[in-house]
Design goal:
- Helix 9 crosses helix 10.
- It is globular and about 50 Å long.
- The protein has one domain: Ribokinase (UDP-N-acetylmuramoyl-L-alanine:D-glutamate ligase).
- By secondary structure, the protein is α/β, with parallel strands linked by helices.
- Helices cover 32% and strands 25% of the residues.
Amino acid sequence: MSTTRSGVICGGCWLVDHNNSIAHWPEEETLANILTRTTDGGGPAHNMAIDLARLGATFPLWAMGAVGADDAGRFLQASCHQHGIDASRLRVIENVATSHTDVMTVASSGKRTFFHHQGANAHLSPDDFDFSDIPARILHLGAPGIHARMDAPWQEEANGWVGVLKRARNQGIWTNLEMISAEPAEIRHLVGPCLPHLDSLIINDYEAGALSGINIVCGGLTDVAAARRAALNLLGAASLQCVVIHYPTGCVAASRGESNVIIHPSVQVPPEAIVGANGAGDAFAAGVLYGLHEKWPLHEGLELGLAAAASALRSVSTTGAVATVEECKGLIRRWGWRAVS
């Protein structure tokens, strides 16, 4: 990773989340009460940018993507300005709605269901990514599967994501990709061609299983040994420098040049402190990427990621409860690490 560059580009998916806490998940043609409802920014690019800002990043942050010329688009631009994020490279498209997701979170379990409209994100293309005048150190890009134009073949490339990643690497920018939990075949189809053009991959256990072909999640539980195999499998199959797989009870990380795979438990968050899991994975990725940008030892970045994820659990929104680095460390001291079984 370049030492002369600084900052993170948060590119790809910018959208608005309508976060609903519901009493229960209803059967078809029945009713469920919405207990609370908030409107927040969302999407992998938005969440990474806001989370890094809330962690207290002192390095520059840039937004890249597409929004509509509507209230939701202006909401996202205002959020960038509020958090000190350069939004000058967010393309505004007339007569197209900003992408949005209706998130339904069951209050008692924290389980989430998503209803998504691509909107402006369907029009995003590699032409919207110009890195020539940005001295960024890292590109965080997401997410394949919900951007019609980017998901399609582009010029000589398998898809637009490959084109963007290659362009960033040609500028000396470290590349990181975020995924969504789509069908395994779609994940392999869209993300597989991206792997040779990535420096790091920070994903959850389901996504890692789909991409590696290794069965990691069984009966809702994560097989940590299988996650370890998947991390090594993905690291060895591409030019990746670092693969990190997270799950509710912790994470597994493998990095090139390291003799040992790191397995670390998550923070022992009290049940009464948990409001919703929406955005916890993004917060984890932000903590890890923060550490990578600052050239911390990998285990320190993992600890920050796990603490940032714990802080995120305190809100139904994606980013609203993410704390500063020092506050995250305080949560570790307050709650401790989950016991390893």
